[in-house]
Amino acid sequence: MYLLQVQDGQREVIRRVMDAYRAHPLEILIVVAGLVVLIGGSLVYVQLEQRRYRKERGRRAQAAFEEKVEQLKLPPSWVAILERMALYLPNCDDKYLLLENEWMFNSCAQKLMEQDEAPADAIAALRLHLGFAQNREKAPNSTVHLPEASTVFVRRAKGERPIRGRVMSPEPHAFRVVVPPTEHFKVGSTVDVFYQSHAGIFQIHTVVQNVEDNILSLRHSESLTRYQQRKYFRRNVSIPVLVKRAESDQPALESTLADLGGGGASMQNPQQRFKAGDRLELRFAANATDRLQVIGEVVRTSNNGQTLHLRFTSIRESVRDKIFQTIFTPRSQPR
Questions:
Q1: What does CATH list as the number for 234-327?
Q2: Fewer CB within 10 A of the end CB, N or C, for the chain?
Q3: Which has the closest alpha carbon to 177: 212, 142, 138, 128?
Q4: What is the pLDDT of residues 20-33, one digit of tens each?
Q5: What is the pTM of this model?
Q6: Rounded CA separation 141/145 (Å)
Q7: In terms of Cα–Cα distance, which of 207, 204, 200, 188 is closest to 262?
């Protein structure tokens, strides 16, 4: 009996607790409505704060852009180009970064030119004014990146021998090249300029804007065509060569160069005399007047030892320039 009374008492306690937590439907509705208002108000607050942040961020970014423009004294025409370039940014408010970040400048400039929305020479002049430096180890993006005093070769037309020139300090609306005084170029004519860097060889198709004495003023270009990504360009040739072991008194053997570049060559292995690891002295004619001599190491052989592949280990830059000129000389011309 006592146990039954205890059990009945426990049931009564549980019932009263459950009744205490049993809410009226109106009360539930009030609680839900309160939650909806609270969550909705939070969302509205967050959206307003985000809008305020974006507006403030845009205001500061615009102020930074205008301050930088004033510091650099950019003319309205360049500012207009920057405004159009900014349309290709993930966030157009970040246009001030175009004045500081060369990677962003390059990316937007390329897209702008693809749409023919700005001339290349204007973008090159703007790039030069912004003072973006170029690492010689990297591929140049513009003619303003050609280092002063570097060697280039200017070709008037296909089939003509390229002319060796030297790059002068760039100007906003032209890049200048010094050529031999005996060479003549017409204003308005198109030329191809070849430039070699550690990143490879690049071709620039441009126009002669002015000729003063032996200085060519060429139109800036933002389109540099890469010939080859290896450090030194190679071209297939067929040039007689005399070869012997370096620092050897043995007579040189006759052979033929199969390809040639500023960093090495491939050639026939005369009498299969040489092997990988040999240091060889090569003498050959670059053209009708220049006789070149280089030292190279055989890095490997192919065709069952019939072909040698060499890397030049001792070569003067003047000799490398002559090789560079040789491989761009039309093969129909005698060397």
A1: 2.40.10.220
A2: N
A3: 212
A4: 555 566 666 776 77
A5: 0.55
A6: 7
A7: 200
